[in-house]
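Input chain follows. Return structure tokens only.
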Amino acid sequence: PFMTPALNKPLPEFEALATGGVKFTPQAFLGHTVVLYFYPKDHTPGCTTEACEFSAAYDDFIAADCVIIGISPDAPAKLATFVEKEQLTYPLLSDESKTTLEAYGAYGEKKLYGKPVVGVIRSTFVIDENGVIELARYNVKATGHVASLKKALKFEA
């Protein structure tokens, strides 16, 4: 029974450690649209594909005044090597305690190869400039997700 944040409501508060050791809170990006995506694990094929697709589309998001932020339960040092290896153009946040993942309903029971497991549910939220959730997608596919999101946000290339 995990809670999921409601659309058109303020996003759940959280504090997380960003790559580079910076403490991050959502208030830092008020005034911008934020794409906040939760992913299971650095250096894995699906997560690498998703992260690189976001990175490749970075300029399109920035042109739309849209900030991209990724969150996983990996440790900050692992996030830093992932950013460096894949040359990601946006910050990643560490949520080792999984409290932020749980607050967003992005951690819980899911199916993996047809079997129920507990883990990170690949999810994406679009938060408007006032800190209100305007789009929530759960169980997204790693490949093609960014293109689908750009279409939903009406700025696909």
